[in-house]
Design goal:
161 residues; mainly alpha; Membrane-bound Lytic Murein Transglycosylase D, Chain A; two-stranded antiparallel sheet; 4% strand; rod-shaped
């Protein structure tokens, strides 16, 4: 009876071994399917890391561009301010000097240092000769003056001798 019991136990062991093999085969197939999915996830992970690196580089580039743009705008602003000041000075210099004397009996014009008040019959050449300067120098310091239409009482600047 003992040998029959050993045969029965051996047969049961064989059956259980066969069942285990079938189960292991199913598990291996499932693991292989999951491995494909894991590989896809790994691929997505590497793409995500590359995109993150590219986004960080882009952020850095944008920040550098913002800094350089701000610096350029600061320089442009300073230049515009300087130009505004220069334009204001040019506008003031271009204004024709208003006649000091008026036809309504106001006080006569008085010449300050380095100035000349136009009198009747004066020309640019007469004024230059009377003050010991060249006509070219006189015209250059009075750029907004119409030399063909000098007015009595008009103030002119005299160049340094």
């Amino acid at each position: 009876m003992l040998p029959v019991g050993g045969i029965i136990v051996g047969a049961i062991g064989l059956l259980l071994g066969g069942l285990a093999l079938v189960q292991v085969s199913k598990v291996n197939k499932t693991v292989a399917e999951h491995q494909l999915k894991v590989d896809k996830v790994d691929g997505i992970e590497s793409q995500s890391a590359a995109a993150s690196t590219a986004a960080e580089k882009s952020r850095s580039d944008v920040a550098a561009l913002q800094r350089s743009t701000q610096e350029a705008m600061n320089q442009v602003g300073a230049m515009i301010g300087d130009m505004g000041g220069k334009i204001t000075k040019l506008e003031e210099a271009a204004k024709k000097p208003a006649p000091v004397g008026s036809k309504k009996g106001g006080a006569p014009a008085v010449a300050g240092p380095g100035e000349y008040i136009v009198k009747a019959g004066d020309t640019g050449m007469k004024i230059a000769n009377a003050n010991g300067v060249s006509l070219t120098d006189l015209q250059s310091v009075n750029s907004g003056v119409s030399w063909t239409g000098l007015k009595v009482g008009q103030k002119l600047k005299l160049p340094a001798k």
